[in-house]
Each structure stands twice: as C-alpha cells, then as structure tokens.
Amino acid sequence: MSIVRQLLVIGVLALLGYGLWNIDDPALRQMIGVEPPAGNGGSATPITPEAEGVPVVVAPVVRVRADTVIEAVGSGRAQQSVTLYPQVGGEVSEVLFEAGDHVEAGAPLMRLDDRREQLALDLALVAVRDARQTLERFKRAVRTGAVSESEVDTAQTTLDRAELERDQAEVALEDRTLRAPFDGVIGIAQVEPGDRVTTDTEIASFDDRSSLLVDFEVPEGFLTRLSLGQPVRARTWSLADQVLAGKISAIDARVDSVSRTVRVRARLPNDEDILRPGMAFAVSIDMAGEERAAVPEVAVLWGRDGAYIWRVDAEGRAEKLFITVKSRRRGRVLIEGGLRAGDEVVFEGVQRMREGVKLSITDRREPAPLDGTAGAGSGPS
After folding, report:
1. What are the sequence ranges of the domains in the chain?
2. CATH pick for 71-79+210-287 out of 3.40.50.2300, 2.40.30.170, 2.40.70.10, 2.60.40.1120
3. Are both 54-65+290-371 and 71-79+210-287 of the same fold?
4. Is 105 exposed, middle or buried (0-12, 13-18, 19+ CB in 10 A)?
C-alpha cells in the first residue's frame, strides 16, 4: 500500500472516532461502547457543575471606619524668634555670650563703651544730692523768715529737674548694655569687642525653641473637621525614626483663593531641644470617618453599568449586587451598596458566576486586620 493511501485511511479512522465520541445520545454511546451503561459504575445522565454547585471561595463582609489621613509638609519656626540689635550706637567693649548658650530673660549679652554715660550719671547724682540739701535748708529757713515760700518752691523744682536728669542718665547708661528679651538660645555673634555698631547692626539671632510652630496647608474640604487642640503627628528628615506628637494651635481665618487651602499651625514640644527652627516636617492628621462595608479588592468586578460583586444569598446562590466604590485600602475596597457585616462575597471563582447559580463553598477566608488609614492630603506619606 502506498504512503498516500495509508495516510488517507488513518485520516478517515480518526474522523470516525471523533464523531463517535461526540454523539449526544447516551443510549447510542452505550451501544457502540464509548460510555458504560448505568448500573455498571456509569450514569445515564452526566453530572453538570450546576447540579453540585460552582466551587467558590468566599470572604465575609466587614465594617471598617473610613478614616482619612491628611498629609502635608510644613516648616518649623521657634515659638519666639528675634534678631538682636543695640539700642544705641557705639564701640563694643564686651561680648558676653557664646553661640548656643541658653540664657534667661534680662541676662546681659553685650556691652558698649559706657564711660561717658557713667560720668553723666555720677554728675546727675551729685546734682540731685545738692538740690535735695538746698531744699531741706530752705524749708528750715522759711520758718524763721530767712527765705520766702517762692524760694522754697524754686528749690523743689530744681530737685525735680535734677531727679529727671538722673533718670535720663540711668537710661542712657542702661542702653549701653544689650540684654536677653526672654528665655532662649542665642545664635552666632556677628560682632567682636572693638567693633563700632549702630542701631542697624545685627548682633545675633535669639530663639525660644522650647516648642516649635509648624505651619502647613490643608485642603479647604477638611476645614470643618479641623479644631484647635486636635492631635497631629510629625516627622522630620533629620530624625526619620521618631514620630513627634503635637497639637493644632491655630487655624487661619481665610482660605487661599488660588490654592484652595487653609493655613494651619501645629505646636510641637521640644523639651529635649532636638528640633531646630527652619526644619521641614511631614505632618499627618487623622480624620475620623464613617463606617463602611469592606470586601476583598479582587471580589469587585466592573461592567457596563459600573462596579458589582457576587453575594451569596440565603439559599447559597449567587446574587449580583451593584456597588459604589468609595476608597481602596491595602487590598480591600470600602463600598456603599446594600452589604451588611457578615454577608459573604465571592472572590475566587467569579469567572463562572451568573445570577442565581448554585454555589459550592470550598473555603472561607477571614480578612486580615486593617491598621492605619487611607491617605488624603497635600504632602508625602
């Protein structure tokens, strides 16, 4: 037999076998021996998946509070911060501080040459003493008629003028000393002894950094949910492993019409003096939200009419339920749409779902706990 004829015979036999195997009549299949008879380990009616139920894995619906985290970046500044300038001009005679010194309010920081002012005060004190002695002598003499009442009045006026000149001399002398305006930390000195300064000469920066103020921007949509004293968390890049706790201390009275944000100020305690003015901070504020139903993200499907899930009804059948997706959080979707806590939804086997199909639950997966909240804001996480 030629090779062509052999190939033709093989092809015909293959087609014949394929046709016999796909015969739909069970009785005919038993007759020709391609299906065992019922009662001999076979079945006259094949078992379909719907008869036993479509195998699926389900997960319970849980209720989760839809908290939000506002995140923003802000800059820190000292609780009080000034640049020190002298009250008067002159030659620097002493610089009484080192950069980084913690000083108390009123402590002397710098002195100018005050020899002339000291002499002026000494002269004023002498004038006061002489005027007082003259007034006392005139008061004794007026009793004997040696001096008139008008002379006593003149002596009193002279004493008053001398006392005012003394006070002026004391102020002029005090102005030659620069003192700390409040408790704080002083920066690097910009002058040295011997320098000549004016009232425009910068001496040093001075900060009260017992706590830092951090200003940042919050979207106007959250304005009504902000309040004074509300807790905040902050991180700074120089202390990346530390979470700093603070509170909102001020909320601006206006919303920026361009950025649609409102300026918020938080106060961060700095008892250990590890924070510095000018640092950048990543600020987070937890905003409590409503409770919502949460389902596995893979259980949510999308169709022409929107998002939907397959819920297991009371009879163990598939029920198609349209939902509204509100947010996503770590593999779960927070939704609206008629689900209750304890309902079960299909999240494995969804490809074979159709309305009313009987389900065979092969496994139930408990959801992992959700820690943290969904982010929303204007800064990095």
Report:
1. 3-43, 54-65+290-371, 71-79+210-287, 92-197
2. 2.40.30.170
3. no
4. exposed
pTM score of the predicted model: 0.59
The amino acid present at 323, given as its one-letter code, is: I
What angle in degrees, to the nearest 10, is found between the helix axes of 115-144 and 149-174? Answer: 160
Q: What is the mean pLDDT of each run of 10 residues along the chain (381 residues)?
A: 62 59 47 44 42 84 80 93 95 95 96 96 96 91 84 92 96 96 95 96 95 94 90 90 93 93 95 91 86 86 89 90 83 82 87 88 75 42 32
- Tell me the CATH number for domain 54-65+290-371: 2.40.420.20
- Computed on alpha carbons and rounded to an integer, the radius of gyration of the chain in Å comes to 45
Task: Look up tokens 């995140």; give the residue.
Answer: 71
In Å, how far are 176, 339, 340, 361 from 349, measured between CA atoms? 87, 20, 22, 10
Number of residues in the chain: 381
